[in-house]
Design brief:
The structure is a homodimer. Chain A is of the alpha+beta class. Helices cover 38% and strands 34% of the residues of chain A. Chain A has 4 helices and 5 strands; from the N terminus they run βαβαβααββ. Chain A has helices at residues 18-31, 48-51, 65-73, 75-87; strands at 4-12, 37-42, 56-62, 88-97, 99-102. Chain A has a 4-stranded antiparallel sheet. Chains A and B meet through β1, α1, β2, β3 and β4 of A and β1, α1, β2, β3 and β4 of B.
């Protein structure tokens, strides 16, 4: 899916309400029209050498960098971000215009 | 796109042949049928606090964990992996079955 991806990875704190945090991010993505897609998953490789401790990956796709900026500044995201940061030991985030070189056709 | 994603992030070494390494990964993804999609991009947020120094993200999608394993072990990937590691200061990699909660419809 083209556009620009906002990719976030998390290492949650011991005892964090992970399921609720994921559910709330899903709700946020579904409620805001500027979020064009929301995909996520939990690492199954579980090799700290490569994961750097990050367990969850969240990928949100937007049409433009302006839409990512609007999402970041959105009051609903700001509110969610506080809860997310409180529950995480570390966060990784990058934004990248997506080059699609191969796409599933079947 | 459902399936399982093999996500790799890289911080390249100063002077690494980044364009060639990206091109070779694209070739690999195009040549191997088990790779269902290949998307990548370069971080534009450029905030080290969040990127942890990683500049490039590569997302390969497979149908199953078995296909990811076959890819990792494939001689062409093993050969490429040597060049990739030689050109990178650090690598992050996770594999995650993808939950798609929202998808672009227009």
């Amino acid at each position: 899916m083209a556009g620009i991806k906002h990719l976030v990875m998390a290492k949650f704190k011991e005892g964090a309400a992970v399921e609720q945090l994921v559910l709330d991010m899903k709700k946020l993505a579904l409620e805001l029209d500027i979020v064009k897609s929301f995909e996520w998953g939990e690492d199954v490789m579980k090799n700290d050498k490569y994961s750097h401790g990050f367990t969850h990956t969240f990928i949100l796709t937007f049409d433009s960098a302006e839409d990512v900026a609007a999402y970041i500044k959105h009051p609903r995201h700001v509110e969610y971000g506080k809860k997310f940061r409180a529950g995480t030991e570390k966060i990784l985030a990058v934004d990248f215009p997506t080059v699609i070189d191969k796409i599933r056709t079947a």
